[in-house]
User: Fold this.
Amino acid sequence: NSPIGIFSACEGEISVLRDHMRLQRSEIFGNREFMIGSLYNRCVVLVLSHPGKTATALTATLLIDRFKCGFIIFGGVAGSMHPNVKVGDIVIASEVSQHDLDSRPLCDRFEVPDLGGKLWPTDRTDVFKAAVAKYLKHGFSADFNGVDLAQFHATQPTLHTGLIVCGDQFISSTQHKNDIIDGYKELSRAPLACEMEGGVLAVVGREFGIPVADLRVISDSADEEAEFDFNAFMEGFAGRLVAALVREAIAC
Ligand code: ADE
Assistant:
């Protein structure tokens, strides 16, 4: 029974998951600490990676090849790319893409050279969606009792599934955001969220034949306020919300 690999890019995303983990042992490799043990009654390898595509490729490869994980989950935050997706909402990717990949005229915008895909499906989206939806209906407010989530949403987050785009860029301008949104119109897609890891995780997973998932909580709107909102969210709610999201997903 192979472990589930779980990684995040920032301390604020992983802190609560690490607190909840029953650590058996840890191994430092490739300048990262791979924590091996159990989390919410599952065998896992949990690791804090770094933001961005290079770090993601390295971490995902090690989780698969060295730590023999059979499923890889990224758990973290993302910027909103869609007016219906608000700070505090949850987005589970059904497909991911690299918005900064552009080798035109050799191949199309967003296309991974040689491999050919522009949109990369992720795995178990519907199962995870059902589990998280059930939790939002029944367990969410109880879990967060006493925590003031009202600054993000009146009652509870909205759960979205769809396209999440990734790049080696922190999106913090409306113009940049709109350029990316316009690019995906040609593929008849409206991205829900932007981040810096998911599009690479899916490619690594495909190359090794290992399923992957990208689970996100929205920290900012990828606009001129993004830096402020991102930092406030990281210090406040990110860790707890990411842990709740990952817990519901892997419990199913
Ligand atoms: N992760 C969270 N917010 C982001 C943003 N605005 N751009 C890229 N990655 C993010």
User: Anything to note?
Assistant: The mean pLDDT is 94. Strands lie at 4-8, 22-29, 32-39, 42-48, 71-80, 90-98, 120-121, 159-166, 193-195, 212-220. The chain has one domain: 4-251. The first strand starts at residue 4 and ends at 8.
